[in-house]
């Protein structure tokens, strides 16, 4: 994947053709990236899975609240890592910096190969299903139609992200507001129902009546289902280098966004149960549509449109941030150099965006992806745990390292305890799913040693790589970004510290 110093593609010399990623993400856009990435299809898919595994309305609501609390603990740890290691790439950059290339590559391998393409595919399919549902009221939308519309949506948003960072962030801002408005509508209608006395399923005496005896493994699977809805809380760390004053805006955006999303998710689930019995919710394939049909009457069409807006913004956010992961991996030498290049005029990582787009479309063509939620959530939690383990390791190895934010040690320790229990019981409950995830991750070991660690490859390998890089540069009109001047970075750090 990489070449030795004498064989690797030559980076352009400093001059007019050198460009850099633009810092265009302010506090509002940073909050929109976090909220927009979290609120996608999950809140419209996961309630059914959470209730099914929790076994009661009351316990399912507890899972939603605790899920948000766990995300808050993790996000505080990521805030420390984000300002201590101010690199784009999130988990991957931190793990590579702390544990070395192999561990970082394995995380990158599983994320690029399965985790993000699958998540994007699930969100895109949810988008197309809800858009087409009004035209196929008495049956499921055709298989080909849903895939075609999902593909068109992904291609369009890839084009937007290739054209302008500003366009992509503005779309994220607008659709974040739209999806919050849609959920606020559900919440307000639900509160009206509760005020009218329609809250039978929410009464404590009824809410904790279990359809099946709850077990720790089933509760762990309920948390995994909820974690799919909360996934994306760490995505601002993937674009740290494009955030204006990251030492201030990164933690502020996290502290604003996570509690807000947790509150919205909990109230949304309460609203669902004000309109549907647990049996009706479990029988529904589109919870928001069923909610609208029961309560909105002639305005029931609002729900499919609202979900479509929510998922559209979610696709945009995932494309924006996951492409930066490919960009960061290539810059570290773990992926082809072409993926570390950005457009000469637009300053967007076009090759990385095209790889993310292609991988997602491939997953769409393979088949159904909804049954992979537990699998994707398992890999997500695995990467979160390894990253926060890195924070503890860094505290031990480099106690005097400059940390603009330093969280109490009880926070990462509490997260790690929860992480260990959740993954342990997930392995016990779903050994095949979790085992397959581990196998795919470990297939990256030979790839790492052949593509990255092995430096003295045959010359023809370097010639092929150079030719592909040259053609890619010509086609995409991209160059290596200008490396940040260390003196500028140090000046910014001292200025932020002075203001703080």
Can you describe what's shown?
The chain has 20 helices and two strands. The radius of gyration is 23 Å and the shape is globular. 71% of the residues lie in helices and 1% in strands. Mean pLDDT is 81; it is low at 2-18 and 486-500. The chain is mostly helical.
SSE order and pairing:
Layout (H helix, E strand, L loop, with lengths): L26 H12 L3 H13 L2 H28 L6 H9 L1 H32 L10 H21 L1 H31 L8 H4 L8 H15 L15 H30 L2 H6 L3 H9 L6 H30 L10 E2 L6 H17 L6 H25 L12 H20 L1 H12 L1 H10 L5 H18 L1 E2 L6 H14 L1
Antiparallel strand pairs: 1-2
In short:
The protein is mainly alpha-helical.
Order of strands across the main sheet: 1-2
Largest sheet: 2 strands, antiparallel
Number of strands: 2
Intertermini distance: 42 Å
Order of helices and strands: HHHHHHHHHHHHHEHHHHHHEH
Strand composition percent = under 5%
What attributes does this structure have?
500 residues, mainly alpha, two-stranded antiparallel sheet, globular, disordered C terminus
